[in-house]
Every structure is written in structure tokens, then in C-alpha cells.
Amino acid sequence: MNNENQINDNPIESNDSKPTPTPTPSKTITDQMIGLTNQNDFSNNIYFIITHSVYLPLTKTLFRLKKQYETNHMLSHFNEYSSQKYHQMSSDFEKHTKMLKEMKKDLDYIFKKTRNLQILLNEKFQIPGVTDQYNEEEDEDDDGDN
């Protein structure tokens, strides 16, 4: 009887133990996949995926945007500078154009006066050939003014 108590006290040899259930196919596949990768490999894979699929393209995009921002800033500065210089030069050009028109009017007036003086002198002193030569030049000048 002593032997019988020892046998019943041992849980491995007890008759009351339930049989282990057979694993389902999904449980088997899940257990095998977990066994294939340990936690460290999984962390490395996630890091690799995040680094190469998210971080690097994002970094490249930010670098391009920064470069584009700098280029836009430089171009806008250049445009402002060009605009200032254009307004300055256009006003100077307008002043010079007005001055040239006034000079042309003044020179036309001076040439007209010198022609009249030359005609008066030619009539008064009668130098032969000078009057004929001047009349030919005057006809050519009148045609060119149109």
C-alpha cells in the first residue's frame, strides 16, 4: 500500500492527467514563424524598413526643398535688385531721351539760323557757286527730315 501512495502522489504517473490537445494548423504556422525570427531580427528589420523606405526619401526630399528654398530666395533677391535698377535706368533713359530731343531741336534751330545767315551773306557779297551749292544741300536736307 505504501507503493500505491507513491504512485498516486507522482503527477506524471497519475491516471487523472488530461491528454494534450493537438495544435491547429494556424497555431502551428504562427509558432514556426515566431521561431524563425527572434525579437532582435524583427527590430533590425523594422529599423531597416523605416530607414530605407521612410527616412532616406524624406531626408532627400527635405534636402531638395532646402536647396529649392535657397534658390528661390536668391532669385527673389535678384528680381528685387533688377526691378530697382530697371526703374533707376528707365528714369535715366527717359531723361537722356528728352535731352537728346531738345538737343536735336536746338541743333536744327542753329543750322536754320546759320543757313539764313549764309544766304544773307551770299546775297550781300555775291560769291559765285556758293549759292548754287547751298541750294542743293538744302533740298537734300529737306528730303531727309520727313
UniProtKB/TrEMBL annotation:
Gene Ontology, cellular component aspect: BORC complex
Stretches the record annotates as Disordered: 1-30
Gene Ontology BP, a term: lysosome localization
One Pfam family cited in the UniProt record for this chain: KxDL
Compositional bias per record (Polar residues), positions renumbered to this chain: 1-14
Family the UniProt entry places it in: Belongs to the KXD1 family.
Name of the protein this chain belongs to: KxDL domain-containing protein
